[in-house]
Amino acid sequence: MGTIRLNLQDSWSYFNNIGALARNESTGISVGYDSRFGLKELQTVSLAGNFPIQFGQIGFGVSRFGGKLFNQQSLGIGFSNQLGIVSFGIKADWFQTNIEGFGTGNSLIFNFGGVAELGPKIFLSTHVSNVNRAKLSKNTEERLDTQIDMGMSYIPNSKLGLHLELSKSLQNDPRVRAGLEYSLKDWVIFRTGIISNPGDIFFGLGLKPGKFLADYAFGQNGPLGSTHHLSIGWIW
C-alpha cells in the first residue's frame, strides 16, 4: 500500500508503529523478505512477533539489511497498551552498522507511537523513530536519522480501508503515502498504493486462510526497477 504502516494491527506493528500493537488481541509471529531492484546489497530479512500480557502487548523484532560491504542489524523489544480510544507504545532497539574497512558502530534507539480512534471508522496515528537522536557509534558525532510519521485511516466497513500518511525526517524532504486495501473474500485481500519523492506505485495480495498469513507486494520505480516483498506468518 505504498509503504503505509501506521494503522496496521499485526505482528509487523513492532516495526511499523509500536503504538498500534495493543489493538491486536492475538499472539503471532511473522518472517519477511524484501528484495529491492534485484540487488542483494539492498535486501532485508526480518522477523517480528507479539504476545498479550495482562496490561497490553509485548512485541519483539529482528532484522538485517545489506550485504557484505555494508549491513545493518537491529534487535529489540517493545510494549503497547490501550486506554479507551487511545493506544500507545514504546520500544528500544539495539542497532548495529557494519562498514567494510571502517568498522562497526552500535546504538540504542528509542521509538514511540500511538493511535487514536475518533470514531468507529476514523483513526489518527503517529510514530517517532529515533526520538533520542542516537549516534551512529560512540566514536563519531554523526547521528542516525530521526523520522516523524503522521497518518489517517478511514475504514467504512470490514472490506475496505483507505489510508493517508505524511513522513518527514530531519535529513530528507517530506513524503506522502496513500494506500487502499479491499477484501475480495474473507481470506483474500487486494492492496495498492503510491508514494511521493520519488514516485513509486505498489500492488499487493494478502491471504489469510485460518491462522496462516501470506502477503506479497510488488513495487515499481521507473529509473531504478522493481521491488518484491514477501512475508508469511502464524497467529493463534
Please provide a written account of the structure.
With 236 residues, the protein is mainly beta. It has a single domain, classed as Beta Barrel (Porin), CATH 2.40.160.40. 2% of the residues lie in helices and 64% in strands. The chain is built from one helix and 14 strands. The chain has one helix at 13-16, and strands at 28-36, 39-53, 56-66, 70-83, 86-99, 103-117, 122-129, 147-154, 160-169, 175-185, 188-195, 200-207, 212-221, 225-235. Strands 1-2-3-4-5-6-7-8-9-10-11-12-13-14 form a 14-stranded antiparallel beta barrel. Strand 10 and strand 11 form a beta hairpin. The longest helix is centred in the first third of the chain and has 4 residues, at 13-16. It is globular and about 55 Å long. The mean pLDDT is 93.
Ordered list of secondary-structure elements with their pairings:
Layout: H1 13-16, E1 28-36, E2 39-53, E3 56-66, E4 70-83, E5 86-99, E6 103-117, E7 122-129, E8 147-154, E9 160-169, E10 175-185, E11 188-195, E12 200-207, E13 212-221, E14 225-235
Antiparallel strand pairs: 1-2, 1-14, 2-3, 3-4, 4-5, 5-6, 6-7, 7-8, 8-9, 9-10, 10-11, 11-12, 12-13, 13-14
